[in-house]
Each structure stands twice: as C-alpha cells, then as structure tokens.
Amino acid sequence: MITYETVSFTARQGAAVELRPMQPAEAGRLKALLSHPEVQPHIVMRCGAGSQQAVLDKLAQRMIHAHDPCALHAGIYARDGQELIGTVSLQNWNRHEGKAVLGYMLHPDWWGAGFTTEAVGLMLSYAVQELGLLKAEGRCRGSNLRSERVMVKNGLVLDRILPVADGSGDVIKVFSIVTQLK
C-alpha cells in the first residue's frame, strides 16, 4: 500500500478570481455553501452515519484542514476579495497514476460571471504543472448545463454517460482531459 502526505495548495491568481487555502474561520461559510438549496442538487456527499449537519461539519473540516491525502481543496475568492465564494478540488487523487476527479462549486450569487471556469482552469494548470496530473475527470448531472460548459471551456470532452441508479431517468455525464507534461 502506498501512503501519501497531504499537499498544501499554493495560491493562484487569475483575472477575476484567486484560489487560496481555506482558513478555519471560513468553516461556517463553507457549510452554508455545501447546504445551499441551489448547490445541494449538484454535489454528491457520502452520507455515512449521523445527521446531515454532522456530515457537513466533517466534510468542511476535511476540506479546510487538508485531512485527506487523496484530495486537494482550494477556496475560490473574487480577486482581492476576502469572502469565500466557492471551492475547486482534486478528489480521488491517485498520485501514482496521475489521475484525479475534478470537483467545484460556487455560491449562486456568483454564477454566470465566468468565475468557476477561471477557477477550474487555474486548478488544472496548477495540477499539471506542479503536481504532474496526467488525467482529470469531471462529472455532472445531465441537466447541469452550466457545469458542462465549465468543463468544455477548460478542454474536457464528453467521455461517457452513466445512468443514475435511483430510477429517476437522470444521467451523469463524465468528461475527461488527458494532459501532456511540459
């Protein structure tokens, strides 16, 4: 079994957003984002034992304190802003194979301004240049056209479509990108 140390994210700045490590004082804002009624349908949380609030608390702490060596989380902030408006992350990160699943969310007040697209681009650039990422995969529900556009604008292409096993008839679209180390 291979074990990995956690990696601290090095801040990145774009034209409209900054990616920075999240701070413990932002846990409340992160939990509010994770539980926002417009964000909730688009994220998948593993609901283990305990209440939804307990699951949110545990997830927020893992994201902020980098307790998971197979994930890397960064906060999204409007450029020169102090308020956490979203997150972008590498999840299920397999360093040996250079693969990860891309995750991101943004507070609905900031939707439609290109912030998520830029944040995902900054994270992918960092992951390829600094971490040696070779392949990234992103997923969204079939009806989530905003998320689909974010991935396509960042070079990910539709790889496959998976049925959701809940009988709803919904699907999960899986996008991927294979990078070349420079």
What does this structure look like?
Helix 1 crosses helix 2. Strands 1-2-3-4-5-6-8-7 form an eight-stranded mixed β-sheet, sandwiched between helices. It has 182 residues and is an alpha+beta fold. Strand 3 and strand 4 form a beta hairpin. The protein is globular. The two termini are 29 Å apart.
What is the element layout, followed by pairings?
Elements: E1 12-13, E2 17-20, H1 27-35, H2 52-65, E3 72-78, E4 84-94, E5 99-106, H3 115-131, E6 135-141, H4 145-153, E7 157-163, E8 171-178
Parallel strand pairs: 5-6
Antiparallel strand pairs: 1-2, 2-3, 3-4, 4-5, 6-8, 7-8
Helix pairs in contact: 1-2
Provide key terms for this protein.
8-stranded mixed β-sheet; globular; single chain; about 30% strand; alpha+beta; about 180 residues; about 25% helix; 8 strands
